[in-house]
Write a structure and sequence with these properties.
With 103 residues, the protein is α+β, with helices and mostly antiparallel strands. It contains three helices and five strands, in the order E-E-H-E-H-H-E-E. The chain has a five-stranded mixed β-sheet with strand order 2-1-5-3-4. The chain binds FE2/S2 (inorganic) cluster.
């Protein structure tokens, strides 16, 4: 199972060893601070915002069009921003590190 690490807004590193589903689902299942996921994963709230570490950007890939539109509406996003509900965990993402940034 892929392993993913969240860096919470207060700097805590939390690693989940058996990640499956979307990154938002993993965060919710493990009560990661700062991932509220108010819309339940339908890409309409941005409360699941994360910043993907530079070295993972290529493997994670760019946001889809809907996700990009939501991110563009928010202050505090940048080129590393993604909505974690739109990132499906795959074996290729084993070792992924993201920062949780509340908007
Ligand atoms: S959970 Fe709402 S946009 Fe991801």
């Amino acid at each position: 199972m892929p392993k993913v690490t969240f860096i919470t807004p207060d700097g805590e590193k939390i690693t989940v060893e058996d990640a499956e589903g979307t990154l938002m689902e993993v965060a919710s299942d493990h009560q990661i601070t700062g991932i509220d996921a108010i819309c339940g994963g339908v890409c309409s709230c941005a409360t699941c915002h994360v910043r993907v570490k530079d070295e993972w950007l290529e493997k994670v890939g760019p946001p889809n069009e809907t996700e990009k539109d939501i991110l563009d509406l928010e202050d505090g996003t940048d080129a590393n921003s993604r909505l974690s509900c739109q990132i499906e965990i795959t074996d290729e993402l084993d070792g992924l590190i993201v920062e949780v940034v509340e908007l």
